[in-house]
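Hi F.,

I've been meaning to write this up properly since the lab meeting, where we talked about keeping a consistent format for the predictions we share between groups. The idea is simple: the sequence comes first, exactly as it goes in, then the structure tokens exactly as they come out, then a line or two of notes. No screenshots and no reformatting. I'm using this chain as the first example so we have something concrete to point to.
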Amino acid sequence: MSLVKYKDKRNFNETSEPAGETKKSQKELVFVIQRHQASHLHYDFRLEMEGVLKSWAVPKGPSLNSKDKRLAMMVEDHPYDYRTFEGSIPEGNYGAGVVEIWDEGTYRHITITDRKEGEKQLLKDLENGSVKIVMNGNKLKGEFALVKLKGSGSGRPENSWLLIKHNDEYATQEPYLAEAYTDPESKVSEEVERRTGKKVKIVKNVISKVAAKPAISPEPKKRNFRTAMAGLRSEKKFTDVITPMLAKQGENPFSDPDWVFEIKWDGYRAVAECKMKEIRLYSRNGLSFMNKYENVVAALEELKLDAILDGEVVVLDSESKPNFQLLQHYPDTPEDSTLMYYVFDILQFKDKDLYNLTLLERKEILKKLIPENSIIRYCDHVVNGGKEFFKWVSEQGLEGMMAKKADSLYYPGKRTTEWRKVRNHNMQEVVIGGFTEPQGGRKHFGSLVLGMYLDGKFIYVGNVGTGFDDKSLKELYSQMIKLKVEKSPFSDKVKDVKKVTFIEPELVCNIKFTEWTEERSLRHPVFMGIRVDKTAKEVIYNNETAAVASSTNSKSGKEKSIIEDKEPIQPEVKKPKSSANKETIVSVEGKELKLTNQSKIYFPDDNVTKGDVVKYYQSVAEYILPYLKDRPQSLKRNPNGIKDNGFFHKDAGHEAPEWSQSVLLYSESVHKDIDYLLCNDKATLMYMNNLGCIEINPWNSRTTNLENPDWMVIDIDPSDTNTFEQVIKCAQVTKAVLDKAGAESYCKTSGSTGLHVYVPMGTLYSYEQVKNFAHIIASLVHEQIPEFTTLERPLKKRNERMYIDYLQNREGQTLASAYSLRPKKGATVSTPLEWKEVKTGLSPAQFTIFNTMDRLKKKGDLFKGVLGKGIDMSNCLRKLEE
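Output, unedited:
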């Protein structure tokens, strides 16, 4: 493509921009995004194609929010060398201003991994006005689309496009501002300030280093119901707000000298921006509290602060205890109740950001600023004594305590384990999806029908019929009836469906309850009040939800576990120091650890308990540990057994016992160091199992040589329509291809629906080399059985065919280890096979927790060759070409 337009616009005697000719990168296609302060601040989005950089000017910058459609104006092609350009363009020249690189990396066509073929298709897509790509940058990752807008008859320029993030694993539902991920001290930022007189407000200059996804919470939709019940009299919403840092749910109180502990206030989180007597008080998602809590605003005005504060608005009852229901009805509350604003953090002081200070440093500043005041109070803390403090909190009948790491920085909008909320009662936010008819003398409604969101679906979690008074019944009914709909908003069946009036799932309420049942339902719920500082879509059911308050789901003492009825599997442990039912202290190879809830049922249909899982892994430890040793562990936790989806907990090393080992590795995907646990002994294996790790997922490489994997794997992943006979056929063809190459191979069941074929690499090759070799093998296999296999990774592209996955051979990718249990019905185990067993009649269901040890005693470790000498890849490739 010609660079005539580019060159015609520039005087290269005056500008240091590259004159450049067409040139191509050696391997993958590259992209660069440059932040450019010219006449207006914008972002230049550039993609390498055909030896030049195809370029778009994006005024607002790119976004990771899939709902954003960012205008992108296509401009002239730029030379390939422009990808590294940073600096000033002199006044009087085209584009005069300052340029800096905001992000850079590689990219490819969305479905075609081959560089040459992908580039051909990209050029066709560009011509057709629809470009879809996968980006791998420092800030931008995953799938994006560039879509050309039609200009005919609309008055819109012909070069108008939209830049859109696809809703994939890297997308966020939260507002995304590119400016929040810039260097506040850069030359472009200085130029912005010089030209506009305004300093660039970087509210997350820390976060860009530690999180791939933005940390600003979404603004909710405006509520269309009256706010007497909802807790607000004004529906005004501020823009340009700071979203406060959020806490993760903690399970148990603890004491630690590196942590501080505060009262968890039962109220509304509130940020106060104070500029002397100019005050903005708003909720965590930007709803104004200016009218509702005008007494707090007035008290803040009296303080004449130049600061941004973070705290909680609460109403104290006659016994000086926070009362959430009184807060909702404020100011229509008893005379002996008191409105308070407890301040526990400070984010800015005299225009200086304090995000980079530690919590204790920030609180020291805050304490000096907050005098004794009838409404504004400093929230004090205790150091170390978390257990004793929680006992006092419980005795006082308070909601719970906050545990915060003393050296934690402030990450706006980020939910972090450095802050944890430990509740005295089980509390849950839920969404109202309907109500039942009133019974007896009750008016308006009988109970509320409750739901939460799980994987984007609105699921039923029970009914609540207690906790209401006449006033709340009347007011809530008046709001709900306006939201009435004919069709159920729930994705699953609702109890007493004939008696339910369904409503749009918009209203969020607080529920107090005793526990979660096996059916994912709230037990003994009590209505505590409506929340207006949360949107319905924020109320998500996940593993943290259930783990905190789940029932142990244990069977009666007469019903022994199936495993206990068979040959007992005993770990090599000492007698417990404590015989408490839910908590046992054991010693494994001289290392002491605590086991909890060993009678909890993990596999309901098979009567397999958490304790059985622990015993199984101890029995096979000598066989599984060689495949785990020195490998970072991506902990997959299912603390409530196989009935939930589980969650990955990679950054777990810092929370593990002192005797355990871990490795700190930088993650490109989340832009921070992750402390991976290493499973090098039986004690660590038991610790992981006690966390809820039913399956074990190690890296393909060890810390001694992280860049070079020990093995290559072909993951045969069938669709719902493939038969297991086809899986077997695919494995047999894979072996035949590898046999031709002279490559030794080993097969194991996935423990689910597929098979895994491994080839020893002996750390002789890099991940890139191994992945490319796997791609060649997978392609040759696909050529032989194209009728039911595919190499397309996106599910929508597979067309119900079996996926031959060679991309598992990338750094950080994991599969279930040999001898790993899988969280599947039947308590199946990922089991190594003899190749003669890979034939018609084979089923992964044959190999379970009940028979794996017997099989090991009989056949030994069939997989040990995987850890042997690696193949000669060059020789293998030569043989495949013959």
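Notes:
Residues 232-423 form a domain with the D-amino Acid Aminotransferase; Chain A, domain 1 fold (CATH 3.30.470.30).
The CA atoms of residues 10 and 827 lie 68 Å apart.

If this format works for you, I'll send the rest the same way.

G.
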